[in-house]
Each structure stands twice: as structure tokens, then as C-alpha cells.
Amino acid sequence: MNADLIDQVRFTAHSEYAFRHPLIRTVAYESQLKADRARLHRRLADALETSESGDHNAALIAEHFEAAGDLDAAYSWHMRAGKWALNRDIAAARLSWERATKIADALPADDPDRAGMRIAPRTMWCGFAWRVHAHISGARFDELRELCTAAGDKTSLAIAMAGLVMDHMYQARMPRASQVASEVMDLIESIGNPTLTVGLSLTAIMAKAERAEWFDALRWSQQVVDLADGNPSKGNFMIGSPLALALTTRAVARYCLGRAGWRDDMRQAIEMARATDPVAYATVVGYVHNPGIPFGVISADDAAVREIEDALQIAARSGDDLALASAQTALGIALVHRPTEEERSHGQKHLAEVRDVFVSHGYSLGDLPIIEAYLARETARRGEGDDAIPPMRGAVDQLIREGQLLSWGLSATNLLVEALLDRGGDGEFAEAESAIERIAAAPTDDVEPLRDVMGVAAPGAAGAGPRRRRGLCGPQGSLPRDGHFTGVRGAHRLGRSDGVTREIRAWTCRDT
Fold first, then answer.
1. β-strand partners of 8
2. Global pTM exceeds 0.90
3. Could you give the percent of the chain with pLDDT greater than 70?
4. Buried (b) or exposed (e) across 170-195, using 16+ Cβ within 10 A?
5. Is residue 346 exposed (0-12), middle (13-18) or buried (19+ Cβ within 10 Å)?
6. How many Å apart are CA 256 and CA 253, to the nearest integer?
7. Are 333 and 290 within 8 A, CB to CB?
8. What is the 3-state secondary structure (H, E, C) of 468-498?
9. Contact 179, 215 (CB under 8 A)
């Protein structure tokens, strides 16, 4: 310090010092013999390893062992560092896995541990790359699949395939995501490991939900709930509380299929996630309210907005930008359903910000159509219908191409029909009718229940309706404000002077 070469940077019981300039550090380091440097690196690694400092120093220990030439120890510590950082700093975890991969690839071909060491970091990277908006489909995943097949490693392949499902979903490749989801669930069930099943099923459930394959989503959600057996942290290597998210997906599947119990599922999921993990809480709150609010199941009331705002603050503090985007999207959706112009303006701002982030970073592209549809709806509310209808059409068309007409396509079609009817011309009326008939004719393995949430009845329904009502589930056809399905609600009729009508019913069961 007297020579002005180093400065004290921490004035605590355990003081820390740093070189005053990077060049000073470089000269001091490079002037040592390699053998002396390696010995010092090992001494530092050993000291840190025995200091009971915990795995938060794992990356530093790995670096010192690697610099000392002890590659086996460095590999182990890089993997420990990746595991520690997984739910804290996913970018740091990625760096640790990449360094472990380089070490494993450099091992001699006849090393008996080489295959397993090459598989492990690649598995973690493929399983979690979606969290840093990286893509694994193609050569990277194919390489890992070949390694796993040669080694007979089903578990690692299942983890990687779960990540591949998310990669397809985030790139708006929904048919492929659903296909891989079925394959990975077959693989997971063949392994028969309860913890693995709990931890890996959620990506497949989400993929099925995106395409309104609700029977699969409900069955797999129930399986996770059963296997977790009340333990909110079981299988928490992808999300902090798989059980909380499974309760959420079970709730969505239940109300879309007209099953009872979904309100209790939602309440339990939020309470569990809040007590378990901040990222899980933000994710669960986001998924409860979105699609809950667009589907008309949950009201965008004061309590809902406060809950989402709380989740948004937690997500911001967590540093997980995907949880942040989920909460911000849910808040934007909630606010554009609010009664005041100021609230809707804030909602539009949130949705525009999320849209711009998704587009610029190239992830969560599957969420863009419904966001674009709501942004266009706000444009229409300002009296700019000519500018609003084309992006709504585009959103609906994209959802149709991806097989999502009976999931997000319902809400997007609702917004499009509203805008068309507000225009009031015969051409717009005909297009609205065509959009409704498209939903009525859409094939689905799950038959009628989801379609009937915003259901479509046959032509010629009894009674005469006014020339227009508001959307698929308008004032007379809306679900109740408290979110309970209470049997057949009022019919929503789109009438024409020639007496042709279409009824849009919102009906199914009473939730108890």
C-alpha cells in the first residue's frame, strides 16, 4: 500500500485489497514462474474450499483449480457453481457450464469418465438455455441426444428435452412444442423417478395448454400434484415451487374443461408460491391472472391489480427477467380491463414495453399475438378502428397457424369481433360472423367444454336480439364478476335484419 500498488476495498473484519490498476496485476502475475503460480492457485483453492464459505464461492474455487492444472477438481466446482447459480444468476450458471464443457471435451478419448462429464454440463445448458433466451434446437441438442443415446442416459435426455419444449414455445413453434412435450412425457414416465417427474413435467404442461390440449394438461398437472405430495420444493430444479405452478395449471385446465375446484387451486398456488420462492410467486401470479382475466374467469378488480403489482415488484428484485415479463404482461392485461382511461393507458404502456422487449430479445414470441391484439384494442378505443383491425386480424391468423385458436385465439377473436362490430358495416358484420363460425367449426380432441366458456350455438336460436352486442362475451354473456361459473348465462346474439342470429353463450358448471 505504501508503494501505491494496491488499495484496500473492504474495511471490515475481513479486509480485502485490490490492485490499483489492471496492468499492475498483470505484471505481478506474469512475472511469476508457472509452477509457482499453479502452487499459489492451489493454495487459494484449498483455502477457499475449507473455509466453509459455501457454494457462493464455487466459481472462484473452480477458476483457481483450473489455473492450478487440477482439471478434475475444476470440473466438479464448475458444476457446483452452475447448480448454485441456477436460481440466482442464470447467466453465471451458463458460464460455469460452458467452462465445464471445455474441460470435459479436452479429456482423453479413453478416459472412462469422459462421456458422463461431457453429458452433464450440456444437459444443464440445454435444459435451462431458454432462461437466458438462447436456442438449443438444432446441432447443440442433436449432439447431446447422440451422447445420451450412446450412454443410455435417459434422465439427462429428459432434462434437455424439457428445455427444448420451452425453446420451441418461446420461438412460437407451438405444434412442435406440443409434439416434443408428448415425447418427453413418455420418456419421463418410462424413467419412473417421482422427483424428476415433478420437476420436468411443467414445460410439457404449458405446451399443451398453449394449444388447448386440456385433458393432457389436466392429467399431467394432477400427476405432479400427487407425486409432490404437499412438498412445494420437490423437484425444484427448473422453478422454485413446481407444486405451486402445477396447482395453477390444474386450475386453468379445470375451468377450461368445466371442472370444479379451480378457485381453491388458484388460492392455494398463490399462497404456496408466496411462502416458497419469489420467482415462483411472480410466475404463478402472472399465470393465474393471464389467461384468467382474458378468459373472463377472473375480474380485473382492485385486489387483482394489487396482487399483480406486488408480484411485479418481487420479480424486479429477483433479477429474473422472464418472471418480470410474466408479471408485467399480467399487469398490462389487467389494467386494460379497468374502467378508467388512466388505468387503461398505463396498461397499454406496460404491454407496449413487454412487446418491445420480446421482439428485441427474440423470446416469448408465442405471447406476442395476444399482446398485439390488446394493444390494437386500445387503439380502437381511441377511435382509430381502421388502424386497429389489421393487427387484430394478424394476431388471430398467427394463432390459427400455431393451432391456438381455442386457447389464446378465443380472446383474440373476441377483441376482433368487438372492433368489427363497432365499425358497424355489413362487411364488418359478415367478418365477425365468419370469425365466430371458425371457432364453432374448430376441431379439438377436448370437444366442447373450452369452446363453451365463450361457446358458440347453432344458427336460428330462439328469440330476436339487438343488432349487436359487445364481443363474444359481452355484458349479457359475461362470466360473473366473482369468477364463478353459475350455469348458462345470458345469450349474446349478433342479429341481422334477415333474422339470422348467432348465440354466444358462456356456460358450464358451478364451481364449488
1. 17
2. no
3. 81
4. bbbbbebbbebbeebbebbeeeebbe
5. middle
6. 5
7. yes
8. CCCCCCCCCCCCCCCCCCCCCCCCEECCCCC
9. no
